[in-house]
């Protein structure tokens, strides 16, 4: 046996595991400390009633001979494809149902999609970036190059026509920076990708936080995107499915003359047995009138947290991106501290855990990410502690 030596080229532990370990160690050393976690972007509100009702009804379906479901199609049930196609139509995007593939979440598919591309491809990712994009490619031995995201470009780099690449990752609204591309920015990336015959892997997991009507919610709102982009999205942040698991991937038939759509179907039918019927029924309930209304209320709860944190940073005079159109706030560490020093400082003196920007890439050092997915009272308490410590 020969092991995959590429694993030697990634950090030993995944960023969020390292952060959780540090929190556990601190808590063990200080059992009396009331630690508030604003680190991993995990939701805290329960699933909405419309989803719960649909899940219960689907459980009952599985109890009866005449409504029982065994294996479903690997790419998902048509009731969910149709609900999603309807959701995209509300953004002015028209999709065929066989361009929509149901998955157990965006993270898995962002890694799995790489089965379709040669190991020789060069991958362009913004720095800082959600670590999954880099780590999955390094594991496969692909060459990764970076587009500098920094305070100067508002953490929204634009393509450089002189840089050649094959695979491009874009996440908007962005994880970790919370910055979101406008139409002109995404148009520039689409034109660049089409000119290079490159593919954009577009992570839209946070589109449900977009409030500004001028900002695109799907890359397919941009002309030319169907010939260059695969889009990944998820019910995790939209509807609290982090522990329930459901997402979707769009592989347009206009991409590579339909080849990638066929290959993805082949890949999924070979390596995946589909998302449980019960979960897909719960996911479809998100798109009912009641479901959408209830989801909007939950998103409003998190947006209120984002507002509390934004106002706190404003009052402290701390520079940040995000907090609007995004559940993340990406702030400049006070007093020129590096990210991990600020992480320790905040944990030790305010008992608040965030995510060090350095964990997202070299340009992330000196920055820090807070999430608005926490409990509302605890977020207000964390904001008070930040004011006391940094004011
Ligand atoms: C994060 O904190 O960045 C998210 O939880 C990542 C994810 O959704 O996997």
Automatic annotation (TrEMBL):
The EC code for this enzyme is 2.6.1.83
Q: Which cofactor does it need?
A: pyridoxal 5'-phosphate
Q: Where is the Aminotransferase class I/classII large domain?
A: 34-386
Report the residues modified as N6-(pyridoxal phosphate)lysine: 237
GO MF, one annotated term: pyridoxal phosphate binding
What keywords are assigned to this protein? Answer: Aminotransferase, Pyridoxal phosphate, Transferase
Principal EC category: transferase
Catalytic activity as recorded in UniProt: (2S,6S)-2,6-diaminopimelate + 2-oxoglutarate = (S)-2,3,4,5-tetrahydrodipicolinate + L-glutamate + H2O + H(+)
Q: Can you tell me which residues bind pyridoxal 5'-phosphate?
A: 71, 106-107, 130, 175, 206, 234-236, 245, 273
> What does the record give as its pathway?
Amino-acid biosynthesis; L-lysine biosynthesis via DAP pathway; LL-2,6-diaminopimelate from (S)-tetrahydrodipicolinate (aminotransferase route): step 1/1
What does the entry list as the binding residues for substrate? 14, 41, 107, 130, 175, 273, 369
GO term, biological process aspect, one: lysine biosynthetic process via diaminopimelate, diaminopimelate-aminotransferase pathway
Question: According to its UniProt record, what is one Pfam family this protein matches?
Answer: Aminotran_1_2
Which superkingdom?
A: Bacteria
Q: Which family does it belong to?
A: Belongs to the class-I pyridoxal-phosphate-dependent aminotransferase family. LL-diaminopimelate aminotransferase subfamily.
Role of this protein: Involved in the synthesis of meso-diaminopimelate (m-DAP or DL-DAP), required for both lysine and peptidoglycan biosynthesis. Catalyzes the direct conversion of tetrahydrodipicolinate to LL-diaminopimelate.
NCBIfam families assigned: DAPAT_plant
Please describe the quaternary structure of this protein.
Homodimer.
Q: What is this protein called?
A: LL-diaminopimelate aminotransferase
Q: What is the lineage of its organism?
A: Bacteria, Bacillati, Bacillota, Clostridia, Eubacteriales
Query: Which gene is transcribed and translated to give this protein?
Result: dapL
């Amino acid at each position: 046996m020969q092991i995959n030596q590429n694993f030697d080229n990634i950090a030993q532990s995944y960023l969020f595991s390292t952060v959780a370990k540090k929190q556990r160690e601190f808590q063990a050393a200080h059992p009396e400390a009331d630690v508030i976690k604003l680190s991993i972007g995990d939701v805290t509100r329960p699933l909405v009633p419309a989803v719960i009702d649909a899940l219960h009804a689907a459980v009952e379906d599985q109890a009866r001979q005449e409504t029982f479901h065994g294996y479903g199609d690997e790419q998902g049930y048509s009731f969910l494809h149709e609900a999603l196609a309807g959701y995209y139509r509300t953004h002015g995007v028209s999709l065929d149902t066989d361009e929509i593939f149901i998955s157990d979440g965006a993270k898995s598919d962002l890694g799995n999609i790489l089965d379709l591309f040669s190991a020789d491809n060069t991958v362009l990712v913004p720095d800082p970036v959600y670590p999954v994009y880099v780590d999955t490619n390094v594991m496969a031995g692909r060459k990764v190059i970076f587009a500098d995201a920094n305070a100067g470009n508002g953490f929204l780099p634009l393509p450089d026509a002189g840089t050649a690449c094959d695979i491009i990752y874009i996440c908007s609204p962005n994880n970790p920076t919370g910055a979101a591309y406008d139409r002109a920015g995404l148009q520039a990336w689409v034109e660049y990708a089409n000119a290079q015959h490159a593919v954009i892997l577009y992570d839209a997991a946070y589109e449900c936080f977009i409030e500004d009507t001028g900002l695109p919610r799907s890359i397919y709102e941009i002309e030319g995107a169907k010939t260059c982009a695969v889009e990944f999205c998820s019910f995790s942040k939209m509807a609290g499915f982090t522990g329930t698991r459901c997402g979707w991937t769009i592989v347009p038939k206009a991409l590579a003359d339909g080849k990638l759509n066929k290959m993805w179907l082949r890949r999924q039918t070979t390596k995946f047995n589909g998302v449980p019927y019960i979960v897909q029924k719960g996911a479809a309930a998100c798109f009912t009138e009641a479901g959408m209304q209830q989801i909007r209320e939950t998103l409003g709860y998190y947006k209120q947290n984002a507002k509390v944190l934004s106002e706190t940073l404003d009052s402290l005079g701390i520079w940040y991106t995000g907090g609007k159109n995004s559940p993340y706030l990406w702030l400049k560490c006070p007093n020129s501290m590096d990210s991990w020093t600020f992480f320790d400082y905040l944990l030790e003196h305010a008992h608040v855990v965030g995510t060090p920007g350095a964990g997202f890439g070299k340009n992330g050092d000196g920055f820090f990410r807070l999430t608005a997915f926490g409990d509302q009272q605890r977020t207000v308490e964390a904001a008070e502690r930040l004011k006391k410590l940094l004011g």
